[in-house]
Amino acid sequence: MSFNEADVQNALKNLIDPNTKKDFVSGKSVKNVKIAGSDVSLDILLGYPAKSVWDEVRAMVVTHLQTALQGVGKVSVNVSSKVVPHAVQRGVKLVDGVKNIIAVASGKGGVGKSTTAVNLALALAAEGARVGVLDADIYGPSQPTMLGISGQPKSVDGKSIEPMSNHGIQAMSIGFMIAGEDTPMVWRGPMVTQALDQLLHQTRWDNLDYLVVDLPPGTGDIQLTLAQKVPVTGAIIVTTPQDIALMDARKGLKMFDKVGIKILGIVENMSTHICSNCGHEEHIFGAGGGEKMCADYDVEFLGGLPLDIRIREQADSGNPTVVADPDGNIAKVYKQIARRIAVKVADMAQDHSTAFPKIVVQNT
Q1: CATH topology of domain 5-81
Q2: Which CATH fold topology does 98-346 show?
Q3: Cα(10)–Cα(302) distance, rounded to whole angstroms?
Q4: Which tens digits make up the pLDDT trace of 39-96?
């Protein structure tokens, strides 16, 4: 029985991408359908990094077409990912070399924001994306330690600075610029925002799909200025189940809403503690607070992470969990959250500002 490209497309309209929850055709993932006799070949181009599930998607599409197309011969499917720039808050231009900026914020300190930021960045990189980290926590820069990077960045042209790197991540932090880990940053607000602006725009980011920005905790003048100046694709709020942390997290969520930045979701850190001796699970800081906050504000609960000594030890040693134990359960949670974030970004409106040609008027 013969079939054509339309039959292949119709068949794939009934197959749902488990990550986006949309069919592959409406998700515009089906490309280059070719039919040679009874054989079919096509490409599936995902709008989010998902290296760990490429084989799963390939097998799913092959099996579905073998069932849906009567008389089909060999089915060849090539799966890949391509990340494009997406819209940011109005009136703010994109940063050279960066497609999307994801801000990681918290209403208060001590909730594991920086640890979450670095592990999500490493998880996105593990899924095949080009990723950078900007440590915007000027008063308490921790990314150099967590990424295991020492030394100072170099400048080739005397105007811009080259990002530092480790674990496949490009990184920039005020921590690279100061002499010693115990040197305090005794700066007023305007100095901080100017420093961040320079770190963001004068770093020669190399073709990043995502730049993860580790913001300072809180919702004061500095955070508001940063939210207005940095072209943010979307923000993630990190909290713990504790009532006081959730109260401050709500303030952070409202701050982003006021400046027109989309909230991608909430990550609940220290959700539960499992005793390393007896295996007993206990909700030390309370339970269900993150999910309730998400329900109250109609945002997505991206996932919960346990209170586990290994997360702290691995980050402090410069080998965060996603690289220290890439196949472990905690790394698996970080990767699930990172993939969900990438899918939500892919669903947003694309930024086409770089696609327009520049018009130059000359006298002839």
Answers
A1: GMP Synthetase; Chain A, domain 3 (3.30.300)
A2: Rossmann fold (3.40.50)
A3: 32
A4: 999 999 999 999 988 999 999 999 999 988 888 889 999 999 999 999 888 778 889 9
